[in-house]
């Protein structure tokens, strides 16, 4: 699994909001989601993230030329950085898929860095079986990292189980990666049950809305 270069991770990143439609005012530090809306020509130092369905970006991870083209597009739109792609790690899939997807997203992140693009590492896991490799390649103590918290859907019967796996994985991630700042996409809705159950230590959590719940999350 390739290593992400520590010197090509932003020293810090202040997210000014999540852009959910074309009418939103574009501000420096705004998070744009790949495949959700067309990017304007100038994204003013924004952050490009991939917290959308895999089919919207998996070609970037599977096709070399699509990966290069995406990196050039992110640079041309004046993004300050990108969050490395987030391919799903489903607990009902063979662990070999988890290893493969982890390899792919680290490869893309490192290649983009070699292209001159700053990349914030995405942290992702499935269950205890994935802990042996899913944090590999992310520098411990990096200035900023990101995760998403959207699969823990309170409307489903599986919520309690999903919550258990999320909390356990988050605790391991904080121990093994220990980023100075952690962007939690979709975390604003779930903060009320995450915060009391997790000791973030020296890590500063940043609770973000998700795209479809922008401005409607439970604070």
Unreliable segments (pLDDT under 50, ≥5 consecutive)?
214-219
Terminal CA distance: 37 Å
Q: How many β-strand stretches?
A: 8
Largest sheet: 5 strands, parallel
% residues in beta strands: 5-15%
Report on this model:
There is one protein chain. By secondary structure, this protein is α/β, with parallel strands linked by helices. Helices cover 29% and strands 13% of the residues. It has a five-stranded parallel sheet with strand order 1-2-3-4-5. The longest helix has 20 residues, at 95-114.
Write a brief caption for the model.
With 219 residues, the protein is an alpha/beta fold.
Record keyword descriptors for this entry.
5-stranded parallel β-sheet; 5 helices; 219 residues; 13% strand; 3-stranded parallel β-sheet; alpha/beta
Topology:
Blueprint (H helix, E strand, L loop, with lengths): L16 E2 L11 E4 L13 E3 L8 H5 L1 H13 L4 E3 L11 H20 L4 E2 L23 E5 L10 H18 L4 E5 L1 H8 L9 E5 L11
Parallel strand pairs: 1-2, 2-3, 3-4, 4-5, 6-7, 7-8
């Amino acid at each position: 699994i390739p290593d992400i270069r520590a010197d090509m991770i932003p020293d810090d990143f202040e997210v000014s909001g999540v852009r959910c439609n074309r009418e939103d005012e574009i501000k420096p530090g705004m998070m744009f989601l790949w495949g959700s809306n067309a990017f304007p020509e100038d994204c003013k130092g924004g952050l490009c993230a991939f917290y959308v369905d895999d089919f919207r970006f998996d070609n970037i991870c599977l096709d070399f030329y699509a990966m290069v083209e995406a990196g050039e597009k992110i640079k041309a739109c004046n993004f300050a950085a990108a969050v490395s792609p987030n391919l799903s790690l489903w607990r009902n899939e063979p662990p070999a898929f988890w290893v493969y997807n982890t390899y792919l997203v680290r490869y893309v992140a490192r290649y983009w860095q070699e292209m001159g693009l700053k990349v914030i590492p995405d942290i992702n896991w499935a269950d205890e079986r994935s802990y042996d490799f899913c944090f590999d390649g992310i520098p411990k103590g990096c200035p900023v990292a990101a995760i998403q918290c959207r699969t823990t859907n309170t409307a489903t019967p599986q919520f309690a189980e999903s919550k258990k796996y999320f909390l356990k994985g988050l605790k391991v991630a904080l121990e093994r990666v220990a980023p100075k700042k952690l962007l939690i996409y979709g975390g604003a809705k779930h903060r009320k049950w995450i915060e009391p159950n997790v000791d973030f230590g020296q890590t500063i959590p940043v609770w973000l809305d998700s795209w479809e719940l922008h401005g409607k999350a439970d604070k």
